[in-house]
Amino acid sequence: MILFMTIYTYQSFSYFGKKTEEKRKKVVIRQNICLFSIHFFAYITEFLITGNENLILLYGAQVVYFILTITFFQIAYPEASKMLMSHMCMLLAIGFFMLTRLQFGMALKQFIIVAGGTLLVSVIPYIMKKMKILRKMAWVYGVLGIVLLAIVLATAESTNGAKLFLSLGPISFQPSEFVKITFVFFVAAVFEQGTGFLQVLKTAIVAACHVLLLVFSKDLGGALIFSLIYILMVYVATKKSIYLFGGLLLGSGAACIAYQLFDHVKTRVTAWIDPWSVIDTKGYQIAQSLFAIGTGRWLGVGLYQGSPGQIPIVEQDFIFSAIVEELGGIVGICVILICLGCLLLFLNVALQSKSNFYRLMALGLSCTYGIQVFLTIGGAMKFIPSTGVTLPLISYGKNSMLSTLIVFSIIQGLYILKGEKES
């Protein structure tokens, strides 16, 4: 598995050096061989260890899913990025077999969510191509996001100290995961009309409303992501450094205030600074994460040979630690590089887009994805305080999974539309 993962990652970056489409197709084919090989070895190992025959059915269903998804996008959207599709399937495969190792029922639910979600988002590139009105709906996106977050603040029940979920009968969902996307659409649509001070002021007011609603709901991880997305989008749109440094300065001040106001922020900062002094309480989660990463070393201890269950909420916030413990630091580095490859492909379509709206949209979604990856892996490695953010396409979570699938589908739509100019 380590060998195939290394080959896959190498091919990911050799892809950018290929000059012809034919050579790029060969790279993607080699990657798909590595993808199916890693997926097979993981599940055959899990079956041999557990003897659970249901694993064979789940493995077969996932193979069918990967084949149908890759084939469908190649036929329906030939101009879409085959490399991005390959990366998406690889990250999903890693998530599938790691969740299966942690808890079979959880992996089954995740697979059902992914299969259904992929079916739904597969029409997004087609909708983007047909509905040019999307760029004209700036204030619809902005108001919709504020309304959804306000409803959460007013009606949602507190979960682990934060108001996150709306319940509609038996169905619950986390609006902030999807509002991130509408927020990017809003900022991109407003800045398409101009980048003067008035436009910056309009977007700043709406952004502040989003962030404050998240802060009052105690969803501070979400507030951090929204703030960083906005600061980076404003800087790129206006090309004025004052907005970047001013935004970062204000953000730092807000972080200091949050530290004074919220006890769970103090808890996470204390655990980050010195987890060993509070290892039995506040620092237990991050300490167990570091033990797992250290135990894995370069080659890992092997599937089912580690103790990832010792890490609280390992399937969401700390799944990267479980990967490194059992598959090794080499695989962990490969996961980071594949995520980096996704980010480069996001930025690539932003650079190629001739429409300012599409360019800013791709940039905003790039920031959304990149920041989330950084916060999750950085928190697991004690590089930054833990924020409770999931690792896109790998961690368990129906809301984050669906929103990430939407983001990847939108980027594929932008690859199809990248040659279109302003209209």
Give the % helix.
Answer: over 70%
**Rg, alpha carbons:** 21 Å
Q: What's the SSE pattern?
A: HHHHHHHEEEEHHHHHHHHHH
Query: How many individual β-strands?
Result: 4
Distance between the termini: 48 Å
- State mean pLDDT (0 to 100 scale): 91
- Largest β sheet strand count, sense and barrel closure: 2 strands, antiparallel
Report the uncertain regions.
none
Shape label: globular
Strand order of the largest sheet: 1-2
DSSP helix count? 17
* Proportion of residues in extended strands: under 5%
The chain-level structural class is mainly alpha
Which helices and strands appear, and what pairs or packs with what?
Blueprint: H1 2-14, H2 21-50, H3 54-76, H4 82-102, H5 104-121, H6 124-130, H7 138-155, E1 158-159, E2 162-163, E3 166-168, E4 171-173, H8 175-192, H9 197-216, H10 220-238, H11 241-261, H12 263-273, H13 284-296, H14 319-327, H15 329-352, H16 356-380, H17 398-417
Antiparallel strand pairs: 1-2, 3-4
Helix pairs in contact: 1-2, 1-15, 2-3, 2-4, 3-4, 3-5, 4-5, 4-15, 5-17, 6-17, 7-8, 7-9, 8-9, 8-10, 8-16, 8-17, 9-10, 10-11, 10-16, 11-12, 13-14, 14-15, 15-16, 16-17
